[in-house]
TrEMBL record:
Residues 6-73 form the BTB domain. It comes from the Eukaryota. This is Kelch-like protein 38 isoform X1. Transmembrane segments: none annotated. The gene is LOC115879455. It holds the Pfam family BTB. Keywords: Kelch repeat, Repeat. InterPro entries: BACK, BTB/POZ_dom, Kelch-typ_b-propeller, SKP1/BTB/POZ_sf.
Amino acid sequence: MENKKEIVTFDIEGSAVECDKELLIKNSDYFSAMFKGYFKESSENNIKLQGVDLKAFNLIMLILWEESDIVTLDLNETYLLLEAACMLQFNSIKQLCEERIMIVLSPSTSLRTWKTAELLDIIPLYLKAKCMALENFMEICESDSILELNLEELCQYLGHIYLNSHKEFIVFQTAMSWFYENQNQSENINPTKVVLKLLSCINFNALNVGEITEMKTYPNISENAEIQMILNCIINLRNNRCTDVVDEFDRDVVSTAVHLCGAKNRKISVKPCILLQSMHPTHTPQSSRITTIVIYDRFHRKQTLTAMSASHLSLSVMSGLAYDSLTDTFKHFFPLEEKKVEHIEGFKLVRYKHFIFFFGGQHLRGSNEWNLNLWSFDTFKNKWERRNKLPHGRRHFETCIVGDSLYIVGGTGRFRVLQNNLLHCDLKTGKWSSEIINLPKDSREYQCCSFLGQLCILYVNHGTVYTFNIADSSWQSFKIAVEEEVVNSLGKYTVFADSTYIYIKGRKLLRLKFENNSFVLDKQKDVRLSEWIEIQCVQCNNLVYTIYKCFDEKYEFCYTLEEMNLDTDEIRNIFENKIAETDPVVVDKKTFYIRANTTQLFSTASYQYVKENIFVNDFL
């Protein structure tokens, strides 16, 4: 005869809810401790539950009794369910909620997910949501979700050093929009103190004097004498009129203005990655076939060398390894399956927000097919998906992401025809440019980068930078004011840029500043004397990572990975002269090898960096 269920009745928000006690004990650590421990409730059948949402509790019971699918719940119900599951320790339901929220996580849901998951201390969900919210500020600032934050939450968001805004003035505009919507929320808060706290979220060093002057015209600022004085003082400080500051403003105003001018620059939450090949456990480089090759040096001297056939290496998987500069260690980050990369050359890996794109290239053995797929790896959800398709086959091209546009520049197309043009894709809509745009010069000596929201193509040897206007597909040229002797000393070079400078890195590091309608040399430094045949570079805030491909004394490909601090000019090698397909890189007891012609350096989002609340300034 079936055992009779023991029923316990809960009083939740004034409603009686009957439950199977054994079912609760089986699924909840909270109720297991309550009914099996030495609590008075263990012998009671009528219990009042405080602080529990009735709807959420009924959803839990529905899932337990009927094994209902959580996917049928809307997101608001899922948040309610998650909070109750955490409180009452229904761990399996908590996990289901986390998985459901992670699946639908997007910029529009990231703020609420961040705040909910942080309150419940759910890691890494809250860090991923926080990173997404900070990265996608330009999209979130146009939505109403930001208006629902309280003052403390808003300041923690807008003031965060990893907030990604195309222009700092937009952060100010967003803060004031929130203020106008919420200024009547509490009569006990002094409006001047609120505005000053909001101004503490702004990096005033990233604003020009015209933008600071425009601030003074905003309602609730234009009629506020104290804030007007502070902004006027900041303008004088920016114009180096220190004598006027001392004469015109009292000590408190000057102190506040100096504080606001002491803001730190914003950063991006990224770290470098390198693509290496992992070896099958049963294969080693030594077991691969050794071949003999004959080469002639530049003096026509004959040399016989041995080389390992790369085709006999196990092609089980290529792997992205992320590098942590704080611990000086690599960590396995993502796999790239054999079918995507077997015998492929000339492809690119590039970061877009928290995604890694893999696209372009050609399978140079076997099928000779072009890789027309634009693959996307979601670093938060740890999965690959086919995002788009390239309209034309390209390999060995330059690439750049500017805002939400992906550019493919130059390279080699079908029938080995060199391409002196570009095409671009809107990553929000997935639409490619309807026409192929010719490059401004007929030259293969160029590099591209994103600078101040535009694609820049640098013809360094010609002393010219061209910027591309995507609205009308036009080009504008600017002079590079660098002496020819300096340019000739660069050797093979690469370029990168931040919000202030364009950098050219070869044997020297040149820092260019846009001034008087041209790019002038702001700083130069000798960085490397030895020769190389290829160079790749990626910037992660003030650290620049460079990988050099060289020949060693036996004419074998070898690679050096270098880190340079742009603030201190300090340079160190992370690894040096590693021979392709021979010298191992050991990560977590797994062995990886550099694979000639496919090793790439790129950056990736790192949600761990946003855990600590670092702000551009201390809040007033």
